[in-house]
Amino acid sequence: MTDKSSKTDNTGAGFATRAVRDGQVRTLENEHSEAIFPTSSYVFSSAAEAAARFSGEQPGNIYSRFTNPTVRNFEQRLASLELAECCVATASGMSAITATILGLLQTGDHIVSSRSIFGTTTVLLNNIVAKLGIATTFVDLPDLAAWEQAIKPETRLLFLETPSNPLTDLVDIAALAEIAHKHDCLLAVDNCFCTPALQQPIALCADIVIHSATKYIDGQGRCIGGAVCGTNDVVGEGVYGFLRTAGPSMSPFNAWVFLKGLETLKLRMHAHSEAALQLALWLEQQPQVKKVYYPGLASHPQHELAKTQQSGFGGLLSFELHGGKAEGWALIDATTMLSITANLGDTKTTITHPATTTHGRLTPEERAEAGISDGLIRVAVGLEDIEDIKADLLRGMV
Ligand SMILES: *Cc1c(COP(=O)(O)O)cnc(C)c1O
Fold this sequence. Notes:
Layout: H1 15-21, H2 47-55, H3 69-81, E1 86-90, H4 93-104, E2 110-114, H5 119-129, E3 135-139, H6 144-150, E4 155-161, H7 173-182, E5 186-190, H8 195-198, E6 208-212, E7 226-230, H9 232-246, H10 252-263, H11 265-284, E8 289-293, H12 303-309, E9 316-321, H13 325-334, E10 339-340, E11 350-352, H14 364-370, E12 376-380, H15 386-394
Parallel strand pairs: 2-3, 2-4, 4-5, 5-6, 10-11
Antiparallel strand pairs: 1-7, 6-7, 8-9, 9-12, 11-12
Residues 92-94, 118, 121, 161, 190, 192, 212, 214-215, 224, 226 line the site of pyridoxal-5'-phosphate.
């Protein structure tokens, strides 16, 4: 857990500077790169000091389930980038969402969530959170009136991802925050696709920002991790309280990898965005392609909102072929470079067929309602040369 008082002093510094420097506390060795602290516990100088630490009278490290200097360094840096008072790191993106819900809600509370969220989050809400007596109503992401209508007296939390995956719908975060606060609800944004380099939900009055650090924060597909950012009250008390007791903690090694990821985050996100825009414009020109979904395109129905809400359009796009599943699979199988994997946020470009993978558990009717056609292909654009990505996609466009 971190708070403002323990940040290193880069007050007034820009985003890229804070991404490189915030949160580091050098040891007596004066190392330049951040140190990794692979230790489960910490030694006290006396029984009295141990007692003072345990009672909370004296701040400091106790046990790495909830206090580790490398993890703290990552938390402080991400909090700074998300403009949050506080950040807690978690073992995965899913445990960040779990810690948010179980740390802040109780039986009888209600959640309103976007329907277009990460598949496992839907399963978490429907199968695990529901079992605890916390029900969820799902609404269409862009439809502000639907969000407000779904709010009940017992609603505590609104939850969403924007842009959505794979169809890149957006919601106006500031407008939804106003609705949330009018009804005494917290607004939580899973900011995995944009990262704070492209979108800072707290500046738009969201209360909680959630991350799967596994994606762009790592940026090179190595580690699983997550984080929750927000105020000292909400995240520093509620979410941290759950985490320190339930224990889905981030390992110091993973925290160190994510720290290194944050240092290049802005550079990478702008490179991913530039490549994705070029690819989207090119795909729109291909006769085999019926439609391209990318917020950076003038043809995107929420292009204007994307321009004001985000400082880049991100690395994720999808496109619909004139054909169906056979043509989709043929295109994917003809690629020789792109990775056939559902992960994203990697330097390596990935390609998937949502209808038979990430959305394969839905019925055909549910898929149709969600807009996931059999000819839909999702690409998470990496950092290879754009001409090589185009050439690889062309192999299967017959
Ligand atoms: C991957 C992902 C998650 C889950 O994160 P893990 O690190 O895999 O647990 C949550 N939300 C979004 C938007 C994701 O893409």
